[in-house]
Specification:
357 residues; Quinone Oxidoreductase, Chain A, domain 1; Rossmann fold; 2 domains; seven-stranded mixed sheet; six-stranded parallel sheet; 10 helices; 17 strands; 26% helix; NADPH:quinone reductase-like Zn-dependent oxidoreductase; ADH-like_C; oxidoreductase; GroES-like_sf
């Protein structure tokens, strides 16, 4: 049996993302076949295609999440929600028809340290992912979907796990003043909710303009500031009543210096992205004189994933959907994702007739 899929055929522009008819994969030992009803886009989908993690012709000869060469063609997509339709050896048939979201990576890391293992393999990078009608994945990495809607459930796994772990990594506590850069994106909008509604902090959301204010306040932000302001740092001081305790950042270079300046003594800066640029200048005196703590953060643990899904299921966290596209418009979806000024996630619908169930 064959299925529709989009494959990245090499490093480059959108011409490297090609629609193809390919064989439906067969589940192996301890695996299940999942019929995909929704796949949310992430920056990693685009960076993998563009060689943002390195290319096989670079000096480091590394690419993909594992820093090894990508095996092209590769089906991208890491945020997947769907239904188990076939089980492999070692998997109970009781798993059939389960409606699931996929934990996005595999590793040999011990419990609580899965995300820090050197052998992480990421769906949509080292494994074929969600830009298709079906995908194979380990049965024990398929979790019950948190919501009755596939589209909103697909918005949770990667962005939600990333945001949850960043909040935990920064040791955010009740009443901390937390500045969130990129607050309207997939990670930022979820981090705003997690930090404020789950951990009880005071969130200052950094957004494009004042038109986002009401939406961000609904998500749990106490105040907003606009990154287009000529007095951004002063604006932060004003709404925070001084320095902030924590900065959560997925933006990178554009706001790095401002973020460090906004932090008070002993402040915590946690990063998990670099959408505006991966290289920045830093005055080390700012770091050591203020006793700043800088944390790198990627993914999270299976226990954190379960906690995240519970918070979503309980209604404490509400995934935001900006726009939906049929799988046939995957190129247009990536173009929209990269260029648009959006609030929330962009989602592909590989099997459109069932995505709402």
């Amino acid at each position: 049996m064959k299925m529709q899929a989009f494959q990245v055929t090499g490093f480059g522009g959108l011409e490297k993302l090609q629609a193809n008819e390919v064989l439906v994969p067969e589940p192996g030992q301890d695996e299940v076949l999942v019929k995909i009803h929704a796949t949310a886009l992430n920056n990693s989908d685009i960076w993998m295609r563009e060689g943002g993690y390195g290319t096989d012709t670079s000096a480091s000869a590394s690419a993909g999440w594992r820093r090894e060469g990508i095996d092209f063609p590769r089906i991208p997509g890491s945020d997947v929600a769907g239904e188990v339709v076939k089980t492999g050896n070692g998997v109970s048939t009781d798993d059939l028809n389960k409606k699931v979201v996929l934990f996005p990576f595999q590793s040999s890391g011990e419990k609580g340290y899965e995300h820090m293992s050197n052998d992480i393999t990421y769906i949509g990078s080292e494994f074929d992912g969600g830009y298709a009608q079906y995908v194979v994945w380990k049965a024990d990495l398929c979790f019950e979907r948190p919501l009755s809607n596939y589209v909103k459930s697909a918005a949770v796994p990667v962005s939600g796990l990333t945001a949850w772990h960043m909040v935990k990594r920064a040791h955010i506590q009740k009443d901390d003043k937390v500045l969130i850069n990129g607050a309207t994106g997939g990670v930022g909008s979820l981090a705003t909710q997690i930090a404020s509604k789950v951990f009880g902090s005071e969130v200052i959301a950094v957004v494009r303009d004042d038109s986002m204010k009401d939406k961000m306040l609904d998500l749990g932000a106490t105040n907003i500031v606009t990154y287009t302001s000529d007095s951004l740092l002063e604006d932060i001081y004003q709404v925070a009543g001084g320095h902030v305790d924590v900065v959560i950042d997925v933006v990178g270079d554009a706001l790095f210096s401002t973020s460090l300046a906004a932090l008070g003594v002993g402040g915590r800066f946690v990063t998990s992205g670099a959408s505006s640029g991966a290289v920045s200048e830093v005055d080390f005196r700012t770091i050591y004189l203020k006793h700043l703590n800088i944390y790198g953060s990627t993914f999270g643990t299976k226990e954190e994933f379960a906690d995240l899904l519970k918070a979503v299921s309980n209604g404490n966290i509400k995934p935001l959907i900006d726009k939906e596209f049929p799988l046939s418009q995957a190129k247009e979806a990536q173009e929209y994702f990269k260029k648009s000024k959006r609030l929330g996630k962009v989602v592909l619908l590989p099997n459109e007739n069932h995505n709402k169930r």
